[in-house]
């Protein structure tokens, strides 16, 4: 019985961990392309998911169209934030804390907007499939398989994108050395906008994948952001594989602490680990070797 | 002539409780709590460039210490307040030493994590905090046998405390330590060369900030008479951070303006329904983007252009 419980905890932990990894990957993408920590990332995920729910439940659209719409809205929102606000702060040479306050404020606004449109209830999206598998006594839903597949696809895609395409390299160059990039003919501002668009898309994907399992509600943004950030930092912030390892570590820690400590303390355990990791291993658990682009 | 503005403000402040209705005075008392706790966050932000997203943790520690000491142990109120301060100092020292080695985003997120961890612990430590049920029946404060049992009476306690905080921040800023802090904020490397012990300075600032948070929390517990976990969540920390951001972190007086804004504007907007949170968020974003010096910076600019005497003085200063 206890082995089954353990297996189930591991399965849940890995599933949640993959979601954190996806959120963290999105934040890492934005950090890579702009040197900013996007504190509204979780809220962007919520906005993407909430849009899809709205399209399915109220506008009665087919699921695939609703999901596309969710991704599109989050992308557009993120792009507009860059063009309208982030650029302004960059032009003013604002300090780090201004950027952080800006994204915190936007996150607050987005979650308030979701509250206004949706109310306080949680909403679920239809899952991609209803099959249930049993592995070593643990019950695994088909949605989990989809999450694993999509996470792997995104991970490999990002790796290839930043390594082999001119566009990806230009996006990295624009943030690492803006002046140098500009002299080689890279449009630094455009690259940053592209970074934000990609980040918004990533946020929406994470939000859409989690919504069939945990209902989307207006207040889940900050905790998603923090755990995603913890995943990214654990892996070394710019290393995509690191975010994956970090996310799964946090997911497992969390679900094991539910089993062995107390369900009310799962966030406390995960976040304590975040603090300890930031202090002791600032380069992430994979170390500097795995880091590319800063 | 020079002080006429301040005298006018003081008269308005004295007159307000006799003009306003009870609910409005109640709101102004809450603004006072925001001002005291926000002063700590503003000090860290304005003088150290440190974003503290965990002030609600110390606010909660202060409130629970006061509530536990007075209700469960039957001790007098000052003991509770002092306990809160000591507990907060211990936590700030223990957690501050390691996390203040971080900088920028990492430090900000570490404080946010600290806030969430503490709010979780408040939930879990039911034997002290009463969990979701909270601790009811916290006694009213009394000063020299004079019970502060109405909003009006508390108003005359909390605002002088807030102004005292601002004034002491001010005098600290112009002292040698304050100058060292500004050097640290603007040019850390240069400050280190001048033998300024940055990590110690940061720790001191964090300790001061935590004490202010704790005192505000204790006063809050005594005023409301009831504490439970809902008052110490992440949102509260964000509001404490908004106080100096909206008011203007560079000047200590900005905290007072910011506290009024944070305490009154959501309430004023709430007649519009749930949309008021969105508007409030947008106001924050607009402040960060368009008024980096906060509302107090805006007020100063307005005063410089609108009041002839100030305009003259400014011109003379520029031509000199």
Summarize the structure.
The complex is a heterodimer of chains A (294) and B (320). Chain A is an all-alpha fold and 294 residues long.
What labels would you give this structure?
heterodimer, A: about 290 residues, mainly alpha, ABC transporter involved in vitamin B12 uptake, BtuC, two-stranded antiparallel sheet, 11 helices, about 75% helix, about 5% strand, globular, B: about 325 residues, 15 helices, 4 strands
Largest interface here, residues on each chain?
A-B, 41 and 40 residues
Question: Looking at the structure, what is the overall shape of chain B?
Answer: globular
The CATH level-2 architecture of chain B is identified as Orthogonal Bundle
Q: Quick check: average pLDDT of chain B?
A: 85
What would you note in describing this structure?
The complex is a heterodimer of chains A (294) and B (320). By secondary structure, chain A is mostly helical. Chain A has one domain: Orthogonal Bundle (ABC transporter involved in vitamin B12 uptake, BtuC), CATH 1.10.3470. Chain A contains eleven helices and two strands; from the N terminus they run H-H-H-H-E-E-H-H-H-H-H-H-H. Chain A has helices at 2-34, 41-57, 63-91, 96-118, 142-164, 166-176, 178-183, 188-210, 221-235, 240-260, 266-280, and strands at 132-135, 138-141. Chain A has a two-stranded antiparallel ribbon. Chain A is globular and about 60 Å long. Chain A starts with a helix and ends in a 14-residue tail after the last helix. Mean pLDDT of chain A is 84; it is low at 289-294. Chain B has 320 residues and is mostly helical. Chain B has one domain (23-319): ABC transporter involved in vitamin B12 uptake, BtuC, CATH 1.10.3470. Chain B has 15 helices and four strands. Chain B has helices at 4-19, 22-48, 55-72, 77-99, 104-124, 126-129, 151-173, 176-186, 188-193, 198-224, 234-247, 254-269, 275-290, 294-306, 308-319, and strands spanning 135-136, 142-143, 146-147, 226-227. A two-stranded antiparallel ribbon of chain B has the order 1-4. Chain B has a two-stranded antiparallel ribbon with strand order 2-3. In chain B, strand 2 (142-143) and strand 3 form a beta hairpin. The model of chain B has no long low-confidence stretch (mean pLDDT 85). The chains are: A mainly alpha (294), B mainly alpha (320). At the A-B interface, helix 3, helix 4, helix 9 and helix 11 of A face helix 5, helix 11 and helix 13 of B.
């Amino acid at each position: 019985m206890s082995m089954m419980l353990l297996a189930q905890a591991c399965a849940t932990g890995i599933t949640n961990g993959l979601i954190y990894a996806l959120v963290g990957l999105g934040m890492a993408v934005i950090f890579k392309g702009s040197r900013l920590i996007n504190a509204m990332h979780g809220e962007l995920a919520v906005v993407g998911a909430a849009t899809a729910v709205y399209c399915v439940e109220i506008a009665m659209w087919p699921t695939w169209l609703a999901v596309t719409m969710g991704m599109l809205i989050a992308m557009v929102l993120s792009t507009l934030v860059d063009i309208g606000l982030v650029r302004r702060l960059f032009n003013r040479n604002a300090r780090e804390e201004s950027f952080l306050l800006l994204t915190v404020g936007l996150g607050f606004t987005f979650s308030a907007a979701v509250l206004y449109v949706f109310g306080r209830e949680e909403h679920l999206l239809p899952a991609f499939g209803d099959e249930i598998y049993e592995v070593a006594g643990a019950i695994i839903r088909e949605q989990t398989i989809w999450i694993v597949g999509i996470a792997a696809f995104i991970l490999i895609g990002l790796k290839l994108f930043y390594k082999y395409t001119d566009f990806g390299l230009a996006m990295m160059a624009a943030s690492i050395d803006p002046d140098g990039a500009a002299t080689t003919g890279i449009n630094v501002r455009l690259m940053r906008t592209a970074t934000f668009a990609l980040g918004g898309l990533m946020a929406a994907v994470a939000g859409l994948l989690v919504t069939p399992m945990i209902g989307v509600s207006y207040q889940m943004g900050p905790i998603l952001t923090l755990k995603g950030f913890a995943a990214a930092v654990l892996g070394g912030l710019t290393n995509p594989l690191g975010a994956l390892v970090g996310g799964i570590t946090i997911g497992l820690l969390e679900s094991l602490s539910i089993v062995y400590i107390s369900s009310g303390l799962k966030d406390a355990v995960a976040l304590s680990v975040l603090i300890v990791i930031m202090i002791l291993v600032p380069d992430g658990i994979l170390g500097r070797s795995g880091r590319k682009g800063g | 002539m020079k002080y006429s503005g301040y005298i006018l403000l003081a008269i308005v402040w004295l007159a307000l409780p006799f003009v306003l209705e009870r609910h409005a005075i109640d709101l102004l008392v809450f603004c006072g709590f925001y001002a005291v706790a926000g002063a700590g966050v503003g000090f860290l932000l304005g003088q150290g460039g440190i974003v503290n997203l965990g002030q609600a943790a110390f606010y909660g520690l202060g409130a629970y210490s006061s509530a536990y000491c007075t209700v469960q142990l039957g001790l007098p109120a000052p003991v509770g307040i002092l306990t809160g301060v000591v507990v907060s100092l211990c936590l700030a020292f223990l957690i501050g030493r390691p996390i203040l080695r971080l900088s920028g985003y990492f430090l900000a997120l570490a404080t946010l994590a600290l806030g969430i961890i503490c709010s979780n612990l408040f939930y879990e430590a039911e034997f002290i905090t009463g969990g979701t049920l909270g601790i009811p029946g916290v006694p009213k404060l009394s000063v020299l046998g004079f019970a502060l049992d109405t909003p009006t009476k508390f108003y005359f306690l909390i605002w002088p405390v807030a102004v005292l905080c601002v004034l002491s921040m001010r005098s600290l800023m112009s002292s040698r330590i304050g100058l060292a802090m500004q050097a640290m904020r603007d040019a850390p490397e240069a400050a280190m060369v001048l033998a300024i012990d940055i990590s110690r300075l940061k720790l001191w600032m964090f300790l001061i900030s935590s004490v202010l948070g704790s005192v505000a929390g204790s006063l809050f517990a005594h005023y409301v008479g009831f504490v439970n976990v809902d008052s110490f969540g992440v949102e509260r920390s964000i509001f404490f951070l908004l106080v100096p951001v909206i008011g203007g972190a560079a000047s200590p007086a900005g905290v007072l303006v910011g506290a009024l804004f944070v305490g009154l504007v959501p309430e004023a907007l709430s007649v519009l329904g749930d949309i008021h949170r969105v508007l409030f968020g947008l106001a924050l974003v607009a402040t960060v983007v368009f008024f980096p010096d906060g509302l107090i910076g805006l007020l100063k600019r307005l005063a410089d252009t609108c009041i002839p005497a100030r305009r003259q003085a400014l011109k003379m200063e520029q031509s000199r």
